[in-house]
Design a protein that fits this description.
The structure is a single chain. It is built from 1 helix and 4 strands. Strand 2 and strand 3 form a beta hairpin. The longest helix has 17 residues. By secondary structure, it is α+β, with helices and mostly antiparallel strands. The radius of gyration is 14 Å and the shape is elongated. Strands 1, 2, 3 and 4 form a 4-stranded mixed β-sheet that branches. The chain has a domain of 45 residues. 23% of the residues lie in helices and 43% in strands.
Length: 74
Amino acid sequence: MKCVICNHGDTQPGTTTVTLERQGVTIVFRDVPAEVCENCGERYIAAEVTARLLEQVAQAVAAGVQVEVRSYAA
């Protein structure tokens, strides 16, 4: 797809790192699948991937995690 930020590059499948904070919990997810603009580097994460990340953060909050680094798990 054409990047909506720079309007010049096309996106390619890749991965990214996402940091999420919720209720005092900070989780860093590595190797998250994303579409990455070849020109500006803007990252686009699919709705189903985002839903999975938010689900994992909710579980971490319930478990009392404060800070954690994880690899993305589908």
